[in-house]
């Protein structure tokens, strides 16, 4: 998009500032500039700015203090009216704090009038439009993924219902030696159904649609179950429980606590280059918390990656860490009010530690 293809809405009541900004917008240093520069629609009040909104507006430059509105309320009103149009706030030297608040409310950026130059103004406009475009694309993708998630969970529940139904029918025909295995199949199917429901709730929590419903959960029972699954899945690995495991301890969590333990156990094996991956698990109660440690004999994790391995500050699947598994662990543990970190194991490998508050 060239500069003369842009249409900007400037909401500013000071004629001097209006002329200065218009001059900056047609400055010769504007990238990809064609004759004339961007079209500027001027409004001298908030009400005029809201009325001037149209599909052709690419960005709004908004003064914080107008004849009919002042402060953060000006930003909120314009954001409500402009919807997906990017907004850049213009502030005075004494209003920088409000500029920061405006960004927190949803503005793309803010500029201090006395510090604006042609280059800074033009660069801010370009970046704001690009970021807004990326955000719209991200929202579109998230909507598509949300629909896909609903479809997949629906189909999984239907197929699992078939498995459970046939498994229950087989109970009268299975010999005594196979009853335990059939029972495990049915229990696993029930667990999958519960997980599809919990995953739906988890996504709503991440989207801010609902709060996490935590309840007292037995970490020992969940951990033992996941260790048995890991042994069945990774027959080449050795899983051992070290020390005494306390009974009757509960933590604040939900059904996805199993996913936390499962991902840590799988991570200890899948990122291990040893012929026989060794995974040692321990659980310790310390005051008001419960700490679970999963140690492996792999290559270990360099100090400069001990934070990024969880994908902290990254966009989920775009994380540079070991994958979405550890990012999910970090997210869930944070929801539970706990902490997760990684340390060096001796002589080689890593120790992932989770600390959760007791219920």
Automatic annotation (TrEMBL):
Keywords in alphabetical order: Kinase, Phosphoprotein, Transferase
PTM-bearing positions, type 4-aspartylphosphate: 63
GO molecular function: phosphorelay sensor kinase activity
Database matches in Pfam families: HATPase_c (PF02518), Response_reg (PF00072)
Domain Response regulatory: 7-128
Domain of life: Archaea
Keyword Endoplasmic reticulum in annotation: no
CDD domains attached to this UniProt entry: HATPase, HisKA, REC
Presence of the UniProt keyword Phosphoprotein in the record: yes
Domain Histidine kinase positions: 151-359
Protein name: Signal transduction histidine kinase
């Amino acid at each position: 998009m060239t500069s003369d293809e842009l249409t900007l809405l400037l909401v500013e009541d000071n004629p001097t500032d209006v002329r200065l900004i218009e001059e900056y917008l047609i400055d010769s240093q504007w990238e990809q500039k064609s004759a004339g520069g961007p079209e500027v629609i001027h409004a001298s009040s908030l009400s005029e700015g809201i009325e001037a909104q149209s599909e052709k507006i690419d960005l709004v430059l908004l003064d914080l203090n107008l004849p009919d509105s002042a402060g953060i309320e000006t930003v909120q009103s314009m954001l409500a009216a402009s919807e997906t149009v990017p907004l850049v706030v213009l502030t005075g030297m004494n209003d920088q704090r409000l500029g920061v608040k405006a960004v927190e409310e949803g503005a793309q950026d803010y500029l201090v009038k006395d510090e604006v130059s042609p280059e800074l103004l033009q660069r801010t406009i370009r970046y704001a439009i690009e970021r807004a475009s990326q955000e719209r694309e991200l929202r579109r993708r998230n909507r598509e993924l949300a629909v896909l998630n609903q479809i997949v969970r629906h189909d999984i529940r239907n197929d699992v219902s078939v498995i459970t139904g046939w498994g229950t029918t087989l109970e009268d025909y299975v010999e005594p030696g196979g009853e335990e295995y059939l029972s495990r199949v049915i229990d696993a199917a029930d667990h999958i159904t519960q997980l599809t429901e919990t995953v739906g709730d988890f996504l709503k929590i991440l989207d801010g649609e609902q709060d996490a419903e935590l309840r007292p959960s037995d970490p020992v029972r969940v951990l033992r179950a996941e260790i048995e699954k890991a042994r069945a899945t990774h027959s080449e690995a050795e899983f051992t429980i070290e020390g005494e495991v306390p009974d009757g301890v509960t933590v604040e969590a939900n059904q996805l606590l199993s996913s936390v333990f499962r991902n840590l156990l799988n991570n200890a094996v899948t990122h291990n280059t040893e012929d026989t991956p060794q995974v040692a698990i321990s659980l310790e109660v310390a005051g008001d918390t419960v700490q679970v440690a999963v140690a492996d004999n792999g290559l270990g994790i360099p100090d400069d990656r001990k934070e990024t391995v969880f994908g902290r500050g990254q966009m989920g699947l775009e994380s540079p860490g070991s994958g979405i598994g550890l990012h999910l662990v970090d997210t869930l543990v944070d929801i539970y009010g706990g902490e997760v970190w990684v340390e060096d194991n001796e002589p080689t490998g890593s120790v992932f530690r989770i600390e959760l508050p007791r219920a």
